[in-house]
């Protein structure tokens, strides 16, 4: 039997959706292949395998990452969330629910990546991080709304071959509104 660790492979531990997975990997193995081929987490999709379509998007330490360009060994010690881990038990994540309610998909192949990206986009916007189309970048600028233009720009790394973009933008906007309402209610509770 081959040793778990050699000059070209290592035994690593990946923390995925709150569970630790121990596995030996060739150093060239991408996170995408580790998820799909080694751990049977096939919700994350392979489209282009070269960082251009966004189908393989997952969250690494709450930031989105294309798993086809992330080496599995580089993901060790990070908190990885895949589409299989975004729901709370039987309760869908608000972004999943919005995609379902507003038909934010057709064939569904790009959808796991779209949803993971959208979750991060909403957090990035709520944290005040600007995009290439954010107009007022001055430090004293009031928080700016997550407009359809902002959503299109921030989600531009996620392609949809079915062209479901109109519904995807609506779904992200709906989920962002729900997220903002939850934050406002939480802030009121804290100050009450
Ligand atoms: S499969 Fe990773 S970006 Fe296309
Ligand atoms: S829903 Fe088919 S590729 Fe996006």
TrEMBL record:
Superkingdom classification of source: Bacteria
Matches recorded under InterPro entries: 2Fe-2S-bd, 2Fe-2S-bd_dom_sf, 2Fe-2S_ferredoxin-like_sf, 2Fe-2S_ferredoxin-type, 2Fe2S_fd_BS, Aldehyde_Oxdr_Iron-Sulfur, Beta-grasp_dom_sf
Keyword vocabulary terms for this entry: 2Fe-2S, Iron, Iron-sulfur, Metal-binding, Oxidoreductase
Species the sequence originates in: Streptomyces globisporus
Keyword Membrane: no
GO molecular function: 2 iron, 2 sulfur cluster binding; metal ion binding; oxidoreductase activity, acting on the aldehyde or oxo group of donors
SUPFAM superfamilies, per the entry: 2Fe-2S ferredoxin-like, CO dehydrogenase ISP C-domain like
Pfam families named in the record: Fer2, Fer2_2
Every 2Fe-2S ferredoxin-type domain range: 10-86
Protein name: 2Fe-2S iron-sulfur cluster binding domain-containing protein
Pathway, per record: Alkaloid degradation; nicotine degradation
Gene3D superfamilies attached to this UniProt entry: 3.10.20.30, [2Fe-2S]-binding domain
């Amino acid at each position: 039997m081959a040793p778990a660790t050699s000059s070209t492979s290592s035994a690593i531990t990946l923390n995925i959706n709150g569970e630790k997975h121990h596995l030996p990997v060739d150093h060239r193995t991408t996170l995408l292949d580790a998820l799909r081929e080694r751990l049977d987490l096939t919700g994350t999709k392979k489209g282009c395998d070269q960082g251009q379509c966004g189908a393989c998007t997952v969250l690494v330490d709450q930031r989105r990452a294309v798993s086809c360009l992330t080496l599995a060994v580089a993901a060790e010690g990070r908190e990885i969330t895949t589409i299989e881990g975004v729901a709370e038990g039987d309760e869908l994540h608000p972004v999943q629910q919005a995609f379902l309610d507003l038909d934010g998909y057709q064939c569904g192949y790009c959808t796991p990546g779209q949803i993971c990206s959208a979750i991060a986009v909403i957090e990035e916007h709520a944290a005040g991080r600007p995009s290439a189309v954010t107009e007022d970048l001055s430090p004293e600028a009031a928080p700016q709304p997550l407009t359809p233009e902002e959503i299109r720009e921030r989600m531009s790394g996620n392609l949809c071959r079915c062209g479901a973009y109109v519904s995807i933008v609506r779904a992200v906007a709906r989920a962002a509104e729900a997220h903002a309402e939850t934050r406002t209610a939480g802030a009121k509770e804290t100050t009450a």
